[in-house]
Amino acid sequence: MRTPDPADEHRHEPDDTPLWNESYYFDWFAEDLSVGGYVRLGFYPNLGSVWYWACLVGPDRPLVTVIEHDVALPRSGSSLEVRHEGLWADHAVEEPNEHMSANLESFAVQLDDPAEVYRGARGERVPFGFELDFFTDGGAFLWPPVTPRYEIPCRVHGQVQVGDEVIEVDGWGQRDHSWGAARDWWSMSWNWTAGRLDDGTRWHSAGGFFPDSDWGVAYALTPGAEAFEEYEEVGIEVVEGRERLPTSSRTRFGGLDLSYEPLAFSPVLLVSPDGREARFPRALARVTAADGRTGGAWVEWNQPPTA
Prior knowledge:
Number of domains: 1
Helix content: under 10%
Mean pLDDT: 96
Structural class: mainly beta
Number of helices: 0
Largest sheet: 9 strands, antiparallel
Oligomer: single chain
Number of strands: 22
CATH topology: AttH-like fold
Order of helices and strands: EEEEEEEEEEEEEEEEEEEEEE
Shape: globular
């Protein structure tokens, strides 16, 4: 089984590609799917900025979100700490391939309708922060050499605070790290998933890159297995609702046939340097396998501008 180089947990030197990108994602959800969240730390050194996103979601609560696309680059090329008006966040590699932490102190926007993100995200300003630890659950999966990237299923512990509410986190999640390629949100669609079934099976899939091809990247990691099962075909079906927020989704790879019911959305509007707009809905989802197993996941759909 190919595994990531522990040195690759840290930041990398960019080339001169304008949209050269390096990103870290941290996703998590409670086992009962009552609450979840994610963080994206995205470096665009040739645009002179960092994109920082963080959120808290749940089926019975408003969206709490931080979306900042003008965060200054850290002074050090190795730092994962970012600062902006009303925002401090730090991320640490505690033990390569085994343990990372993510911490935030900020003000966020609270929205009853997640689609308001596409219309300016005007809502109530609330204090928002967390201290979260992501521990590897089963191993680290290195992508095939189409792009530098790895995915790590995790056990997640910590604490989240919104206003006066304190939420203890003891759940599941996924973190990933990619770098080196131009991240052009405005030219290519995709569907990404990562989650856990109730029997302990972990999976990740990415596909939907090309309209007439099922090419993709996926893994399944069953309890007690010594290695990931890897797949290069990912079948995807998506049904969209209002504001193009998906009402259901389905992925098929290997022996897994998974249906997703979005429970709570945390979308982002992405505006290119030339003004084009892509929509990027992400959702905490309930998952049902064709054989009856259930579980939870985070799911994303990149929706570039259409003609």
